[in-house]
Design a protein that fits this description.
By secondary structure, the chain is α/β, with parallel strands linked by helices. The chain has helices at residues 26-39, 52-59, 63-75, 102-108, 125-138, 153-167, 181-195, 209-217, 258-271, 325-339, 344-356, 358-384, 409-418, 447-464; strands spanning 79-80, 88-89, 111-112, 176-179, 200-205, 221-228, 231-232, 241-244, 274-278, 302-307, 319-322, 390-391, 398-403, 421-422, 424-425, 436-441. The chain has 3 domains: 1-92, Arc Repressor Mutant, subunit A (Orthogonal Bundle), CATH 1.10.10.10; 102-117 and 361-464, Alpha-Beta Complex (Aspartate Aminotransferase, domain 1), CATH 3.90.1150; 124-356, Type I PLP-dependent aspartate aminotransferase-like (Major domain) (Aspartate Aminotransferase, domain 2), CATH 3.40.640.10. It has an 8-stranded mixed beta sheet with strand order 4-11-10-9-8-5-6-7, with helices on both faces. It has a 4-stranded antiparallel beta sheet with strand order 12-13-16-15, covered by helices on one side. The protein has a two-stranded antiparallel ribbon with strand order 1-2.
Length: 465
């Protein structure tokens, strides 16, 4: 978001996603666009807008169209105007922009290419049940009582060893807080920052849309920080915290380069800002060993967040934060306020799987499945989308197909949904429009269905190209 001291540069591209819809006049389209941006909270009360002449030049419209839009929005209370001064945003209650119902789309889809979902049929049910049964039989009755909000000691110790061995994380068990997935981990960290008066939170642009919504819901200021092939751009970064995906950027699929890592840590130290590292799928790298966690280079500047939602199943709601020493007590306090503690028997079961080596064996098996699907998807993309660029390292369960800038990726997704194909638009994850594309997931798409799925999707895309 822009604060009350911000001034919009008249020629700054991308701050206003102006795109008239079919049947709209330019006046109606501009009023709708400005109204939506203000109601979404992207423009905060007090932000000055460009003068009508400047905005008209930027958008290629007549000054009369812009003046009419400004006057209408003033009458509706969205803008405040003064003689011989640019209008400013009025005090309007922000209402989040409705998001597509992706869960419902997945349930009815013939081809599910949702980019954020693993294949839950790979869940090692027998191993989990055997470990759970052992935990229940061996645990004292006190295990069923109220538990420590920090998490079970057995799991924190197992995680400390596992994360140090596989991700290079500096993970003393006392610095680990067990949470209910990445969603709660980020929520608790944001609440700690807010309690400290740190309210400007930056995210990679594009990045996971629910993170944008979470920041806004907590009435924090959302800062969009662009990325390139080396990851998040550090130049011009001005915030109290940054959510970052160094090992495998979501959704672009790039890796944060070595120089950028050093720049981020230097920036964090200079600014006194917190880096929140979302290591959501680092276990699934197919061409080489994944890069080590950023936290290992700066454990006092980085809060490391992990989860089993991709590796086992989202429904387990098991995740963790490896926090800097200075944040641990506040994080534990926020966890207690949120829900007291994460279910103890599930924590102990995961600890048993890690200690026994069953978790590692499951990961090796899942890697084989996902790599096979990615290879098949890459082959099929070359066949059905020969003119388009595919981006993303060989990792995780998604990749990005770039579309020409003029193509409406949201319209393609809507048309695909009617054809019972679940896929996501790059624009869904963007704060400022910088490109068009489709984010394709292969976590739940069996190899035998990949070619048919892309053939059906290509028929839709070709109409828009």
């Amino acid at each position: 978001m822009l604060n009350s001291q911000s001034v919009l540069e008249p020629d700054e591209p991308g701050w206003l996603p102006f795109a008239p819809q079919p049947g709209e006049t330019l006046r109606v389209a501009l009023r709708r666009t400005l109204r939506d941006v203000i109601r979404s909270g992207a423009l905060r009360p007090g932000v000055p807008l460009p003068a009508s002449r400047a905005l008209a030049r930027q958008l290629g419209l007549s000054r009369g169209v812009v003046s009419d839009a400004y006057q209408q929005l003033e009458s509706e209370g969205y803008l405040l105007t003064r003689p011989r001064a640019a209008p400013v945003v009025g005090a309007v209650v922000a209402t989040p922009t409705p998001r597509p119902r992706t869960t419902a789309a997945r349930r009815t889809a013939i081809y599910d290419m949702t980019p954020t979902t693993p294949d839950v049929t790979l869940f090692p049910l027998r191993r989990w049940l055997a470990a759970y049964d052992e935990v229940v039989r061996r645990s004292p009755a006190a295990t069923l009582d109220y538990r420590e909000p920090r998490g079970e000691e057995a799991l924190r110790e197992a995680l400390a060893d596992y994360l140090g061995r596989t991700r290079g994380v500096v993970a003393d068990p006392e610095r680990i807080v067990v949470v209910q997935g990445t969603a709660q981990a980020v929520d608790l960290l944001l609440r700690v920052l807010k309690a400290r008066g740190r309210v400007r939170i930056a995210v990679e642009d594009p990045s996971h849309a629910t993170q944008h919504e979470r920041i806004r819901a907590l009435q924090l200021e959302l800062v969009a920080q662009p990325i390139d092939q080396e990851g998040v751009i550090t130049e011009g970064l001005d915030s109290d915290g940054l959510l970052v995906t160094p090992a495998h950027q979501f959704p672009a699929g790039c890796v944060l380069s070595g120089p950028r890592r050093r720049q981020l840590l230097e920036w964090s130290t200079t600014q006194g800002a917190l880096l929140v590292e979302d290591d959501y799928d680092a276990e699934f790298r197919y061409d080489r060993e994944p890069v080590r966690a950023l936290q290992g280079l700066g454990p006092d500047r980085v809060a490391y967040v992990g989860t089993v939602s991709k590796t086992l199943a989202p429904a387990l709601r098991l995740g963790w934060v490896v926090a800097p020493d200075s944040l641990v007590d506040e994080l534990v306090w926020m966890k207690r306020l949120a829900d007291d503690f994460t279910p103890a028997l599930d924590q102990l079961t995961l600890a048993a799987l890690i200690r026994s080596g069953e978790y590692d064996r499951h990961l090796r098996s899942a890697r084989v499945v996902y790599r096979r699907r990615r290879d098949r998807l890459a082959t099929s993309l070359a066949k059905h989308f020969p003119r388009l660029t595919v981006e993303g390292i060989a990792a995780g369960v998604h990749l990005l197909v770039r579309l020409p800038p003029h193509v409406d990726d949201a319209a393609i997704v809507a048309e695909a949904r009617h054809a019972k194909i679940a896929v996501q638009a790059l624009s869904y994850y963007q704060i400022r429009a910088r490109g068009s594309g489709l984010v394709l997931g292969y976590g739940r798409l069996h190899e035998s269905a990949i070619d048919a799925a892309l053939g059906a999707l290509a028929a839709i895309v070709d109409r828009h190209l």
